[in-house]
Specification:
The complex is a heterotrimer of chains A (465), B (811) and C (113). Chain A has 465 residues and is mainly α. In chain A, 72% of the residues lie in helices and 0% in strands. Among the domains of chain A are: 137 residues, no CATH class; 52 residues, no CATH class; 112 residues. Chain B is globular and about 115 Å long. The chains are: A mainly alpha (465), B alpha+beta (811), C mainly alpha (113). The interface between A and B is large, with 52 and 49 residues.
């Protein structure tokens, strides 16, 4: 009888998780976690056999069966390792990818650590869990990897993390647990919200509006869409607003902002503009860029600053003014890049950056080839981290010079071999899928029809074939 | 009250000097012989070490045990000797002996001990040389050592009591080095605007030219051939060198003089008098002095100044006081500044003044009893240009009933108010007398206004010029994996300085095994790291890491340089939370004579080939650019015989060969860019034709993009960008070609040519024969699948890496 | 450490803020301020390590003070610092002060522990 119960339980779990075709990774591969469930069930049977009172069994059951709730206790305490382990067991809550859930809980716990050194150590510990992982990599873990990695590499740089998350646009979404997708949405929104750039909010919400019912993303998407249509708040928006009562203030401000004047508020004073630049809160709009430039670099200002240079004893006032202009451009390039459509590399500094990126691409390409040729077994996360570096470079090239297609063209062969190797030899279907989705449009733009066909037929449509 | 003294030492190539700042003024210290400067000569005698004039006298009688000009080899591993005891001496040890002697003189003169010092060094000394100098001072018994560039020191000494505002130059032509600094004084603050120079240009080059002239005369008039490389003539040549040096000094005051020559030639005594006029000397040193003037003008121009904006020039160093140097400087630069400081002590006095401005005080008194510990901890400037500096203090003994404090100037009688003490801290605004030394005494009071015993809380503040931090002489950065440099700390940055940048790993490093990732630290202004000198390195080994360091992994690198020539660096693996510290301070390599000869030869061949090509093309502009290089290489070739005997010459020739190579490479690069543009344009025409005939709309769009890109790239003339366009055009060409029926046939032939390297020979041969059949049958679909299979059997070659001689592992 | 301040994201340690001076100050005042702050840091005066800047209260050490002093004594760098100077009390404009602050939104989104 017990055996039958156990068997049906395992079958049920398999049914929930499903074991779909490769590419659709809605599969629960966490045998360890299944084992724990089975153990818990056996424990329950044993406790009943010894006629342990119900309330006591209830408490034990709560402890064992609701690990996602119990893990929250450790999250609050800032105990990363227990939160991580219990997160791994929270299969009902993170049923799409319990491993990502473990990292999610671990990350949450790390945020409760006050001491920055201890927090860093905890994040390093979490980051090392990816390395030691014997399992394959799935979308949820990719998201958590990017979040944890960015907190280690560039702590406090919200814009960097948001850029990294944008790179995950083509990740297959169904296997991202809802809490993970909400967390990613929040981090992606963080640098955009102070400026209420609706265009960006819409595109971010669209990216994280997963089948996991990320209601916050749905709400923001709806709001941004209404904004574009210039329509008043709809019933749907009101409904979603109710669903997001937890984010009452945010939702409320969004609705208020919907009716606000669309015109970019001109930064009236020079001081206010500079304060914005210091704190990084300058909206990335072209029109504002030219406005700001006029404010700082008009001919009258030029004359005044040349005179001041003379008073200070600067040997060459004209060169000093040119230097000032350069710093203004450097500030604005950094702050307005996102909204810039100007792809011409017209500055020496841009050109140097472009050259550095090309060099970096060269090194990455050689490392990809070395990776393929090495006989050493390399974990999926190492492949993923190299792919993220490559993707970041391609994204930067696209943004700065529109050169991503050309760069991709110079290494498309290596990338194709890499994707094929991941699919055939390593069986990293999810990662290969993500890579194929990113590369397919690039291959098409490049006129590599054969590669485009293969990416589509052999990888992206594999399941349906 | 304890007297504070500040010590400054000018450690020169030929002569050294020491000065002390005490009681508000600076004074030179005379050596036991009564001279203001001490020759930097060390002699090993049976009874011990002798330094200075006594040692110098034995330079020719006992050359094996007497060492001079070792400063020129600081930072190298070259050893002098062995001496009579069989001991070999490093330049650091020899310099330490000179410093010990100077320290002794100062201690005897002041009846005090000195444990901190400011030592001067040529402005263009590189880190290994600076580090070696600081080490020598530590060996000599100094615990606190700060280094200061010589021209800054002389500028400080010369500008100490001058009121004039504006820019001025310090022209320092020493025995072995030439330095020039551009300084600016404003509001009582002396600032180093920039400096330049040549580490291998000095009075000795004039001596060398004079020696050569004498040898020529001996050969022409008396048929006496003194071969430099011949061991037998060495004593004779040394004698000539000494005689011309003395004659050069005499010519500073006389119009002509005699060089008295007495030496042995082929076993016979030769005694001759060769007359030399000031005009001869001027002709011989013309090129050298012109070179120094050119360096000065280059410095003035690089800082955006016009020559007429220079107020005056301060001349420093023995050779700088030759009349013709003064005349040339006045003609081309600015009037010479008049100063009452002995030129031989100027640098040392500047060093002592600097020690005072940065508060590098020595308190040790030899015989008197140690002063009683003060109950207060005071913070005040020793020297400052501000007439109302602040005194900050903390009461160390918290049990004292101190509630207020008052400062009194002992000479003028000026008194501050009674300043209340809050939280054991107090601030008093002092008033000091301009241009004077001011001695203050402090009195403490309790709540009732009664005086409280606070020990000996006196201090001094002298009004005078203060100085900005001395600048870094050459930029410091990293050698990157592609052979370029990334500058971290720019030349001219005030020291100490610390900079942090994020670089990326160019290779992967696994946690197990023998792997290592090197991060070389280089010094120099060149963009290519092979032209810069490696001064240290950070090494990341497999044992340092827990996880694989991937290509592209961010590494935060920090480089820190202090005023004592110490370089510290650390690398932080951001994603692994691993910190690697420490840096090996490398010695300057001594290039072998063979390698220098080979380099010289290859450069001469390259220059010659270019000349021939340019003459063929009648490219007069390029010929004019190449001309100076040809002259320089001829000079270097003439100096090659000196290589065997003299490490200093090797360094000098190596430097000049590098300069020639840099210039030559620049000329070659410009030429290469023109060729690349040509190639790019012809490739574009070729691809346009193919796209028109065989391409689809995507190809046409790509071609259009590449066309626009080509326009921009050729306009800017950036090599890498043009190369990328060519790469893009090639890729487009291949893509269009792939759509043509001939493609699979060509591809098949291509892969079939590698059949010898196939992993499965039998299968590969079968595919080739099947492929031939498919071509004969015109079965392209089959040929495609066969070609793919064949290609999968041929092992891929690895892509080429960088071209960095330092084996850098970062980009 | 003071980063090269032509790099936009790294401009928090503006030299005038570090030395708590305005753009009209003289070289002597720069010297004096640097000397005093260094002395205060050496004596361990409470609050000596803090300075006000647009992004809030930041920390300084002896190296930062020395770098700030050197920058302001160099006319070229001084001109740059004057050009970009704003009062450290300035704030980004907006009807609601909080709305412009990333920290505010971080809190609102529940990202702050």
């Amino acid at each position: 009888m017990t055996f039958l119960v156990l068997l049906s339980l395992i079958l049920l779990l398999r049914l929930i998780g499903g074991s779909g075709p490769p590419g659709d990774e809605r599969a629960v591969h966490d045998n360890y976690a299944i084992g724990m469930w089975v153990l818990a069930f056996v424990l329950f049977v044993i406790l009943r056999a010894f006629q342990v009172p119900w309330p006591f069994i209830g408490i034990i059951g709560a402890l064992v069966f609701i690990p996602s709730v119990v893990s929250l206790v450790f999250v609050r305490l800032g105990w990363v390792a227990p939160a991580y382990c219990l997160g791994r067991l929270a299969m009902m809550y993170f049923y799409r990818d319990p491993a990502a859930g473990a990292h999610y809980r671990g990350f949450q716990a790390s945020q409760y650590i006050k001491d920055p050194h201890r927090r860093r150590r905890a994040l390093t510990w979490l980051r090392n869990r990816f390395q030691g992982k014997r399992f394959k990599i799935y979308s949820g873990e990719m998201v958590m990897f990017v979040i944890i990695d960015a907190h280690l590499v560039r702590p406090g740089d919200e814009a960097f993390l948001a850029r990294q998350l944008r790179c995950l646009k083509t990740v297959s979404k169904p296997s991202i647990p809802a809490p993970v997708s909400v967390l990613a949405l929040k981090f992606a929104l963080l640098p955009v919200l102070p400026g209420w750039n609706w265009r960006q909010i819409k595109s971010i919400a669209e990216q994280w509006d997963t089948p996991a019912y990320n209601l916050l993303a749905k709400f923001l998407f709806e709001a941004a869409w209404l904004r574009r249509e210039n329509a008043p708040p709809s019933k749907m928006l009101r409904f979603l607003w109710l669903c997001n009562l937890r984010y009452y203030k945010l939702a409320n401000t969004a609705i208020r902002r919907l009716n606000a004047d669309d015109k970019i508020e001109a930064r009236a004073s020079r001081d206010a503009l500079i304060a914005g630049l210091y704190t990084g809160h300058v909206e990335g709009e072209e029109s504002q860029r030219s406005l700001a430039m006029r404010l700082l670099l008009n001919p009258g200002q030029g004359l005044l600053w040349r005179q001041r240079a003379q008073v200070l004893g600067v040997p060459n006032p004209d060169a000093a003014w040119q230097n000032l202009e350069r710093t203004v451009l450097a500030h604005f390039r950094a702050h307005f890049r996102a909204g810039s459509s100007d792809h011409a590399l017209d500055r020496e500094a841009d050109m140097n950056t472009w050259e550095e990126r090309q060099k970096a691409l060269g090194y990455l390409q050689s490392s990809i080839v070395t990776l393929q040729n090495s006989r050493q077994k390399v974990s999926g996360f190492e492949h993923f981290s190299i792919w993220m570096s490559l993707l970041t470079l391609l994204t930067d090239l696209k943004r700065d010079s529109g050169d991503d297609v050309l760069a991709f063209g110079s290494m498309s062969g290596s990338i194709w071999n890499w994707i094929a190797g991941l699919w055939n030899d390593h069986r990293e279907y999810c990662l290969a899928n993500f890579m194929a989705r990113t590369c397919a449009p690039l291959a098409r733009s490049l006129g590599h029809h054969e590669m485009y066909r293969r990416l589509n037929n052999d990888i992206l449509n594999h399941g349906s074939r | 009250m304890t007297e504070s003294r500040y010590l400054g030492i000018d450690l020169g190539t030929s002569n050294s000097a020491v000065a002390v700042f005490e009681g508000g003024r600076v004074r030179p210290v005379f050596d036991p012989m009564g001279d203001i400067s001490t020759p930097s000569v060390v002699r090993v005698t049976p009874s011990g070490i002798v330094v200075g004039r006594k040692a110098q006298r034995k330079l020719f009688d006992d050359p094996e045990n007497t060492f001079k000009e070792f400063k020129r080899l600081m930072g190298t591993n070259t050893l002098a000797g062995p001496d009579r005891n069989g001991q070999q001496w490093s330049p650091v040890e020899l310099s330490a002996e000179v410093l010990k002697a100077l320290k002794r003189s100062a201690e005897e003169s002041c009846d005090a001990t000195f444990d901190k010092v400011v030592v001067t060094l040529p402005a263009l000394f590189e880190l290994p040389q600076s580090h070696a100098t600081a080490n020598a001072a530590r060996i000599a018994g100094f615990q606190g050592v700060e280094l200061l560039p010589e021209p800054v020191a002389s500028g400080l000494a010369a500008g100490w009591d001058q009121e004039e505002k504006g820019a001025w130059l310090v022209y320092d032509l020493g025995g072995g080095t030439f330095d020039v600094s551009l300084l600016e004084s404003r509001e009582g603050l002396l600032r180093v605007v920039g400096h330049d120079g040549d580490n291998f240009l000095g009075g000795r080059d004039i001596d060398r030219a004079m020696t050569e002239w004498v040898r020529q005369k001996l050969s022409d008039s008396y048929r006496l051939e003194l071969d430099d490389g011949h061991g037998d003539f060495k004593p004779a040549i040394r004698h000539i060198q000494s005689a011309v040096e003395a004659a050069k000094i005499r010519l500073s005051t006389a119009d002509s003089t005699l060089i008295e020559l007495e030496f042995e030639y082929d076993g016979q005594e030769v005694a001759l008098d060769q007359s030399i006029s000031r005009h001869d000397l001027e002709t011989l040193s013309q090129d050298i002095i012109q070179k120094t003037i050119h360096i000065c003008q280059r410095l003035v121009k690089s800082k955006g100044l016009q020559p007429d904006q220079i107020l005056k020039v301060v001349l420093v160093g023995g050779p700088a006081h030759m009349p013709m140097v003064g005349a040339q400087v006045e003609q081309h630069l600015a009037p010479i500044a008049k100063s009452d400081i002995d030129p031989m002590a100027l640098v040392a006095e500047g060093a002592a003044l600097y020690a005072a401005t940065i508060g590098l005080a020595c308190h040790g008194e030899r015989e008197s009893a140690k002063p009683r510990q003060s109950a207060l901890w005071l913070q005040h400037p020793t020297v400052c240009s501000d007439l109302n500096p602040n005194l900050l203090g903390r009461v160390l003994d918290e049990t004292m009933a101190l509630t207020s404090i008052r400062a009194t100037e002992t000479q003028s009688g000026w008194q501050s108010d009674k300043v209340p003490i809050e939280d054991n801290l107090f601030v008093i605004e002092l008033t000091i007398r301009a241009g004077q030394r001011n001695r203050f005494m402090l009195e403490g009071f309790d709540q009732r206004g009664n005086r409280v015993d606070i020990g000996e809380p006196g201090f001094e503040v002298t009004h005078g010029i203060s100085m900005s931090d001395p600048p870094l002489s050459r930029s410091i950065g990293l050698a990157l994996a592609d052979g370029s440099t990334r500058r971290f700390i720019e030349r001219g940055t005030p020291l100490p300085a610390k900079r942090t940048f994020v670089q990326h790993s160019a290779e992967s490093l696994a946690p197990r095994g023998e792997g290592r990732l090197t991060i070389p630290i280089v010094q120099g202004e060149r963009n290519k790291s092979r032209f810069c000198r490696q001064v240290g390195e950070l090494v990341l080994t497999s044992s340092d890491i827990k996880r694989t360091v991937q290509v592209g992994a961010p590494i935060e690198i920090t480089i820190e340089v202090d005023r004592g020539g110490d370089l510290k660096a650390q690398a932080f693996l951001m994603d692994q939370n691993v910190l690697i510290e420490g840096v090996a301070q490398l010695a300057m390599g001594d290039p072998s004579p063979e390698s220098l000869r080979a380099l010289c030869q290859s450069l001469a061949v390259r220059i010659n080939n270019h000349f021939q090509a340019m003459f063929r093309e009648r490219d007069e502009k390029m010929i004019a650019r190449m001309e100076p290089l040809s002259q320089q290489i001829q000079l270097a070739q003439r100096a090659l015989p000196e290589l065997e005997s003299d490490a200093d010459s090797r360094l000098r020739i190596h430097r000049s060969l590098i300069e020639i190579e840099v210039e030559l490479e620049q000329i070659e690069n410009e030429d290469q860019i023109e060729n690349l543009i040509e190639e790019c344009q012809s490739r574009y025409v070729e691809v346009s034709y193919q796209v028109e005939s065989q391409g689809d709309p995507t190809d046409r769009r790509l071609l259009q993009d590449l066309g626009a890109r080509m326009g921009r790239a050729t306009e800017r003339g950036r090599q890498s960008e043009i190369e990328k366009v060519i790469e893009g055009l090639e890729s487009l060409q291949a893509s269009v070609h792939r759509k043509s029926p001939a493609f699979w046939k060509d591809a098949f032939d291509y892969w079939a040519s590698f059949i010898g390297q196939a992993q499965n020979q039998r299968r590969a041969r079968a595919i080739v024969s099947e492929g031939r059949q498919a071509i004969a049958d015109n079965n392209m679909a089959k040929l495609e699948s066969l070609t793919r299979e064949l290609a999968s059997l041929i092992p891929r070659k690895h892509l080429g890496g960088g071209q960095d001689p330092h084996d850098s592992g970062v980009y | 450490m003071i980063p090269a301040f032509t790099e936009p994201p790294l401009c928090h340690f503006w030299p005038f803020w570090v030395l708590e001076l305005g753009p009209e100050c003289s070289d002597i005042q720069v010297e004096k301020a640097a000397r005093e702050i260094t002395a205060k840091l050496a004596l361990g005066v409470p609050g000596a390590a803090d300075f006000q800047a647009v992004p809030g209260t930041l920390q300084r050490d002896e190296a930062l003070v020395r770098e700030a002093r050197n920058l302001l004594l160099d006319p070229d760098q001084r001109l740059l610092a004057e050009f970009w100077y704003i009062d450290p009390g300035s704030r980004v404009p907006g009807a609601d002060e909080n709305l412009s602050s990333v920290d505010y939104w971080r809190q609102l989104l529940g990202l702050d522990a």
